[in-house]
Amino acid sequence: MKRIDILFFMMSMVFLYAWAQDVPLWVHKPSALYPESSYVSAVGSGQDRPRAEAGALGTLAAYFKQSVTSTVTITDTERQVNGRSTSDSRMSLSVEAAAAVDTLMGAEIKNTWHDGQNNTWYAVAVMEKARCRELYSGELDTTVDEITTLLDVSGGISFHTIRNCQKAQRLLGKAELYALILTLLDGPNRQAEISRINTVAADVLAKAQAIPVDVRVGGDVNGRLKAAFAEAFTAAGFKTGNRSSRFALEVAVTLAPVTLGKYFNTRYTVDAVLKDTQTGAELFTYNIANREAHPGSQTEADNRAIIGAERKITNDFSKILQEYLNSD
């Protein structure tokens, strides 16, 4: 019996030795093939080749602290970044970068290998530092130039300035990401430059939001609708203006009795337009209409109409204002 055990052990050792000879060195130590001085590398594994490649690219993205969205589930995966590895029995990786960056520029799958014994695929994703530094420096320069143009207020501050600031702040997210990746690629540290631009953007936005907006409502009852509109502008950071303000929200409110069934009915319409009183330009419009009813009197139906319009404005107008301010 012992002879059989020894024979089995020897055969197993021979098999394992033969298997080990076939395993590429980069599977367990990617830096042996792609030295850290010149490359960033990451290994991924999975039940098929696409999952292995997704794992490698996802691990590379995770190394650069990128947010990721499209999730790929990989079972029994071993992750390695430049030789530093962790093992998870089950983990989720994403291979699609967030909206700011579609993918890691310059990242490519260099090698794949199939372990037939365990039916597992391995892949190594690589970024050549010198080449990628050039790519990210160029993208960062382009993004910074675009932000600088958006923050130029030499022509004066207006609602358009706010929209530019919102876009600039979104681009700053990309710039910060590019700067971070550039640093991790052993490139120049440009974080101070990004911080300075961020401070300028915040200052310009603060000045733009200090623009007073006059809310003018015709046909209001007890000022309820004017208060609802004014609250939306206040929540967005604006100040309440007066008749001399450059920007004004002009609102027309109409209440009309409607004959319908046994109840008293009132149909309301609210038509609003935000205007630049200097140029006469209409920046955006807001329109709502509905009907309210009361069993007792037309006056109560009118009151319900005002309350309904107020509720609608409170729920919707702030969102529409923000959508306008965030639009390109």
Question: Which blocks of ≥5 consecutive residues have pLDDT under 50?
Answer: 7-11, 13-20, 66-102
Mean pLDDT over the full residue set: 82
Order of H and E elements: HHEHEEEEHHHEHEEEEH
What gyration radius follows from the Cα positions, in whole Å?
A: 31 Å
Q: Report the span from N to C terminus.
A: 80 Å
Count of separate DSSP helical elements? 8
Query: Please, what is the oligomeric state?
Result: single chain
Protein structure class: alpha+beta
Order of strands across the main sheet: 3-2-1-5-4
Share of residues in helices? 40-55%
Shape: elongated
- Please count the beta strands (DSSP E, at least 2 residues each): 10
Domain count: the total is 3
The fraction of residues assigned to DSSP E strands is 25-35%
Largest sheet entry = 5 strands, antiparallel
Describe the structure.
The chain has 8 helices and 10 strands. Helix content is 45%, strand content 31%. It has helices at 2-22, 25-28, 49-63, 129-150, 159-184, 191-209, 224-235, 298-326, and strands at 39-46, 68-81, 84-97, 108-115, 120-128, 212-218, 239-240, 247-260, 263-276, 282-294. The longest helix has 29 residues, at 298-326. The radius of gyration is 31 Å and the shape is elongated. Mean pLDDT is 82; it is low at 7-11, 13-20 and 66-102. The protein has a 5-stranded antiparallel sheet. The chain has a 5-stranded mixed sheet with strand order 7-6-8-9-10, covered by helices on one side. It folds into 3 domains: 2-130, no CATH class; 136-209; 212-326, Double Stranded RNA Binding Domain. Helix 4 packs antiparallel against helix 5 (159-184), helix 5 packs antiparallel against helix 6 and helix 7 (224-235) packs parallel to helix 8 (298-326).
